[in-house]
C-alpha cells in the first residue's frame, strides 16, 4: 500500500545475470522503456527491486523488476479503489446519521426546550441558575414528560402505553438520580476575615469526596454511598470537572405513576437533599425507538459550583446496539471485509519492510500507512469494548430493568461515540492515501502532487511559525479580555476564538469596550500579521514549489510507464469498441431489404439513420481533405511554371551588367549580419555557384568603376561560373542565371538583401555568405522539366 518514491526514480541495466532482453515485454505486449532508467545508482536499483518485491540475485533482471513493479502497481491502484469504496459504504452503514439527528433533536426539544409551568416568562432547562430552579425543573418538567398518563383528549393511558415519551420512545430501564458531595474543610482567608470565615466547601475532587449517609427514599430511609463498581457507572468527564462513577444514587422504578414521582421529588426537596456540600447531581434515563432501532442515552447534569451557581448541561447519545435487523448484519459483514483488507495491507507492508530494510522508513507514505493502520487498530479496540456489553444487554433478560438501572448507557454511548469519532478521523487518512496515486493519473495532476511533496518541509516550518503566533495572541486575548468576554474565558476558547476571527466571526465592539487602547491594538496587529504576512508567505511557498516543479520538469519514470500502460489498455479497449461498431455498420450495409416492406422497415430503423449520418459525415470530411491536397499540388505546379517563364529572360541578361565595389560602412555590415541571424545563420553557407550572379566582364582600367574599386575597402570577389553541361549535355542541362526585375524592382535570390550606404548608394548584401556587391544578384533557375507543361485550357492540376 506504500509509495515507492525511491524506486520511482527509475532503473538501470539488469542487476543480476539474467538476460534483460527476454523481459522487455511488459504486460499487454508493451515494451518496457529502460532507457529512462540507465542513470540509476546501485541503491536506487535495490530500491526498485524491493518495491517490486524482489531481492537482488543472479537470476533477477532489471527489466523484469520494472515489468513486475508496473503490473503490481496497476493491481494496487484498482485494489485500493475497491477498498476505498468498501470502507466508505461500511462507514455510512454503521450509523444512520440522519435518523439519529432527528431522533436526538426531537427529544432535546421536549426535555430541554419545555417552559417551566407557572411562570409568566420563558424559562427552560438552560435557564437553571440556582438550586431553587433545579428543584422547580425536577418537580414540574420531568414528571410531565417521563411519566405522562393521559392523551390529549383526556383519555387515560393503558398499562401498555405507560413509560413512553411522545408515545413512541420507550423507557428501557429505571431512571437514576445520583448526587456527588464534598467534605467541609478549612479556608485560607486573610487575617481580617478569619473570625467570620472559618469553614469552606471546596470544588469537587475524589480526595475531598463526602461519603457520609444522607436522607433517601422512601421517607425515613438512609441513603448510603456506593462506589462505581457497585453502581456499574464510570467516570464522567464532559462537565467542568471530572466526576467519578460513585455517589448517592436512587433508581426511580418504572411502575411509578406521575403522582408517585412528584411525591418522590417533593420529599427530597423538603429534606434539603441538596445543600452546600452538593457539587453535582446526575439524572440519567435511556429510550428506545423501535422504528429506527436506535437507543438514546440522556444525561442531565447540574453542577453546583463553589460560588453559588448551578450550571446545567446535557448529553444525548444515539446508539445502535446489537444485531437486530438486516442492515446490522450487512454493516457487520462489510466491516469484517474492511479489516480483512487492512490485515492484507499490513502483511504486504511487512514483507516490503523485510525486503527493503532501513530504506523502507525513508519514504513518507510508509509512515503514513502505519499511522493509518494504528487508527484502524484503535478503532477495532473500541469496537470490541462496545460490542461485548451491548450484545450481552440486547440478548439478556430485562426483568430487573423495571426496578433499577442495569446498564450505564452514558459510558456505553461514550465508547460508541469513540468508535464513530475514530472512524470519522480515519476517513481522512483513507482518502488522503489516494494522493499517493495521483501522480499516476496524468502529468498535470502529478505536478500538483510533486508540488505538495516539495513544499512539505517549508509548509511544516510555516505551520510552526503560525502556531507560535496564534498561541501568543491567544494568551494575550485570554489574559486581557477573558474575564469580560466569554469567547476568551479559557486559553483553549481563546485559541478557537482567534481562528473564528480569521474567518470573520468576531465582536470588535466588545473588545474595544473592555479596553479601548489595548483591544484595537491587539486586534489590528493580529489581522495584519496573519493576513498580510503569514498568508502571503504560505502562498509564496506553494508558488515557488510549483514553479520549481514546472522548471525542472520533474516526473517519475515509473509513473510515466504506468500511465503509458493504462493508456495502452484504454486504446486497446477503444479499438475493440470501434471494431464492434464497424461490424455493426457492415452488418447493416450487407442486410439489404428484400422487398418494399423490408425497405420501409430498414428506413424506419433509427440506428440505420444514425449510421447513414455518420457515413455521410465521414465522406464529406474525406472530400474536404482531398480538396486541400489537390489545392497544394496546384500551387506547387504553378510555382514551377513561373520559374520556367523566367528562364528565357534570365538567359538574355546572363552576360549583362558590370561588377562594382565600393566602400560600405563596416558597422552597417555588422548590423546586417546581426539582423540576418536566426535559423539561417546556423545553416551551412550556400555554395557560391548558387548564391552569386554570373561573372560580369572585368572593368576597363582607368575607368570610374576601376577607381571606385581601388578605393573600396570591400575585397575583390569573382564568383565561379557554372560549367555548361553540369546537369546534362547541351544548353538544356545548364543552370541559367540572370538579374530579374518585377515592377521595376530586382527579384532577389534567397539570402540577399538590399541596403543603402552613407552616400545613399544602393548595394546588395548576402546575409549567409557576407558578400556585398553593387549590381543585383542573378537568379539561378533549374533547367525546364522534360515533361509537358500545363494544358491549353489552363488546368494546372497534375494527372493523378
UniProtKB/TrEMBL annotation:
It is found in: Membrane. GO terms for cellular component: membrane. The chain crosses the membrane at residues 77-93, 329-347, 367-388, 414-436, 448-474, 517-542. Residues 670-750, 774-800 are annotated as: Disordered. Gene3D superfamilies: 1.10.287.70, 2.20.70.10. It is a multi-pass membrane protein. Keywords: Glycoprotein, Membrane, Transmembrane, Transmembrane helix. Disulfide bonds join 187-200. Its main location: membrane. It holds the Pfam family PKD_channel. One of its GO terms (molecular function) is calcium ion binding. Residues 746-779 form the WW domain. Residues 779-788 have a biased composition (Pro residues). PANTHER family: AT14535P-RELATED, POLYCYSTIN FAMILY MEMBER. Belongs to the polycystin family. This is WW domain-containing protein.
Amino acid at each position: 500500500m506504500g509509495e515507492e518514491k525511491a524506486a520511482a526514480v527509475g532503473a538501470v541495466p539488469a542487476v543480476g545475470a539474467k538476460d534483460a532482453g527476454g523481459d522487455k515485454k511488459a504486460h499487454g505486449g508493451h515494451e518496457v522503456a529502460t532507457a529512462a532508467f540507465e542513470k540509476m545508482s546501485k541503491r536506487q536499483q535495490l530500491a526498485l527491486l524491493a518495491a517490486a518485491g524482489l531481492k537482488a540475485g543472479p537470476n533477477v533482471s532489471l527489466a523484469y523488476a520494472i515489468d513486475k513493479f508496473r503490473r503490481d502497481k496497476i493491481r494496487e491502484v484498482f485494489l485500493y479503489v475497491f477498498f476505498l469504496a468498501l470502507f466508505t459504504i461500511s462507514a455510512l452503514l454503521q450509523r444512520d446519521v440522519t435518523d439519529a439527528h432527528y431522533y436526538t433533536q426531537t427529544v432535546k426539544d421536549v426535555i430541554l426546550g419545555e417552559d417551566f409551568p407557572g411562570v409568566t416568562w420563558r424559562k427552560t432547562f438552560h435557564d437553571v441558575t440556582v438550586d431553587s430552579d433545579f428543584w422547580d425543573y425536577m418537580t414540574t418538567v420531568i414528571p410531565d414528560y417521563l411519566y405522562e398518563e393521559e392523551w390529549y383528549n383526556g383519555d387515560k393511558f393503558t398499562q401498555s402505553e405507560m413509560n413512553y415519551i411522545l408515545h413512541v420512545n420507550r423507557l428501557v430501564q429505571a431512571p437514576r438520580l445520583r448526587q456527588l458531595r464534598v467534605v467541609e474543610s478549612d479556608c485560607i482567608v486573610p487575617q481580617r476575615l478569619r473570625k467570620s470565615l472559618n469553614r469552606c466547601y471546596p470544588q469537587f475532587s475524589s480526595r475531598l469526596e463526602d461519603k457520609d449517609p444522607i436522607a433517601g427514599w422512601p421517607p425515613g430511609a438512609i441513603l448510603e454511598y456506593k462506589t462505581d463498581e457497585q453502581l456499574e457507572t464510570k467516570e464522567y468527564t464532559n462537565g467542568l470537572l471530572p466526576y467519578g462513577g460513585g455517589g448517592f444514587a436512587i433508581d426511580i422504578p418504572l411502575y411509578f405513576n406521575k403522582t408517585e414521582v412528584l411525591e418522590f421529588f417533593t420529599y427530597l426537596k423538603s429534606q434539603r437533599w441538596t445543600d452546600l456540600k452538593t457539587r453535582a447531581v446526575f439524572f440519567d434515563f435511556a429510550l428506545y425507538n423501535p422504528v429506527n432501532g436506535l437507543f438514546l442515552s440522556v444525561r442531565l447534569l447540574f453542577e453546583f459550583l463553589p460560588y453559588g451557581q448551578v450550571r446545567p448541561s446535557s448529553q444525548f447519545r444515539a446508539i445502535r446496539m446489537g444485531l437486530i435487523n438486516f442492515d446490522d448484519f450487512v454493516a457487520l459483514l462489510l466491516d469484517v471485509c474492511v479489516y480483512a483488507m487492512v490485515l492484507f495491507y499490513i502483511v504486504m507492508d511487512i514483507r516490503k519492510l523485510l525486503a527493503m530494510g532501513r530504506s523502507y522508513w525513508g519514504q513518507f507514505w510508509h509512515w503514513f500507512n502505519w499511522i493509518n493502520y494504528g487508527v484502524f487498530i484503535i478503532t477495532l479496540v473500541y469496537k470490541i469494548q462496545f460490542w461485548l456489553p451491548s450484545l450481552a444487554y440486547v440478548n439478556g433478560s430485562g426483568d430487573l430493568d423495571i426496578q433499577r438501572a442495569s446498564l450505564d448507557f452514558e459510558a456505553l454511548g461514550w465508547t460508541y461515540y469513540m468508535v464513530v469519532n475514530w472512524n470519522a478521523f480515519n476517513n481522512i487518512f483513507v482518502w488522503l492515501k489516494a494522493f499517493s496515486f495521483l501522480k499516476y493519473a496524468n502529468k498535470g495532476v502529478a505536478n500538483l502532487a510533486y508540488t505538495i511533496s516539495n513544499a512539505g518541509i517549508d509548509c511544516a516550518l510555516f505551520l510552526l511559525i503560525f502556531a507560535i503566533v496564534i498561541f501568543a495572541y491567544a494568551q494575550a486575548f485570554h489574559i486581557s479580555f477573558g474575564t469580560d468576554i466569554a469567547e476568551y474565558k479559557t486559553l483553549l476558547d481563546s485559541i478557537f476564538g482567534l481562528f473564528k476571527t480569521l474567518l470573520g466571526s468576531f465582536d470588535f465592539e466588545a473588545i474595544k469596550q473592555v479596553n479601548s487602547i489595548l483591544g484595537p491594538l491587539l486586534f489590528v496587529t493580529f489581522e495584519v500579521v496573519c493576513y498580510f504576512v503569514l498568508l502571503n508567505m504560505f502562498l509564496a511557498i506553494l508558488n515557488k514549489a510549483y514553479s520549481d516543479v514546472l522548471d525542472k520538469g520533474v516526473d517519475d519514470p515509473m509513473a510515466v510507464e504506468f500511465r503509458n500502460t493504462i493508456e495502452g489498455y484504454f486504446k486497446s479497449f477503444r479499438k475493440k469498441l470501434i471494431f464492434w461498431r464497424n461490424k455493426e455498420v457492415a452488418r447493416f450495409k450487407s442486410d439489404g431489404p428484400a422487398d418494399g416492406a423490408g425497405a420501409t422497415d430498414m428506413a424506419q430503423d433509427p440506428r440505420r439513420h444514425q449510421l447513414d449520418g455518420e457515413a455521410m459525415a465521414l465522406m464529406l470530411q474525406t472530400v474536404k481533405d482531398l480538396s486541400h491536397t489537390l489545392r497544394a499540388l496546384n500551387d506547387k505546379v504553378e510555382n514551377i511554371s513561373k520559374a520556367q517563364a523566367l528562364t528565357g529572360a534570365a538567359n538574355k541578361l546572363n552576360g549583362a551588367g558590370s561588377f562594382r565595389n565600393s566602400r560600405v560602412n563596416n558597422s552597417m555590415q555588422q548590423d546586417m549580419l546581426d539582423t540576418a541571424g536566426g535559423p539561417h545563420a546556423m545553416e551551412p553557407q550556400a555554395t557560391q555557384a548558387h548564391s552569386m550572379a554570373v561573372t560580369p566582364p572585368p572593368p576597363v582600367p582607368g575607368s570610374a568603376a576601376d577607381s571606385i574599386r581601388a578605393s573600396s575597402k570591400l575585397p575583390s570577389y569573382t564568383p565561379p561560373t557554372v560549367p555548361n553541361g553540369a546537369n546534362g549535355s547541351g544548353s538544356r542541362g545548364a543552370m541559367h542565371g540572370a538579374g530579374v526585375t518585377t515592377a521595376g524592382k530586382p527579384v532577389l535570390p534567397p539570402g540577399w538583401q538590399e541596403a543603402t550606404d552613407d552616400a545613399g548608394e544602393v548595394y546588395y548584401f548576402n546575409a549567409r555568405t557576407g558578400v556585398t556587391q553593387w549590381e543585383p544578384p542573378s537568379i539561378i533557375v533549374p533547367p525546364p522539366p522534360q515533361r509537358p507543361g500545363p494544358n491549353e485550357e489552363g488546368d494546372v492540376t497534375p494527372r493523378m
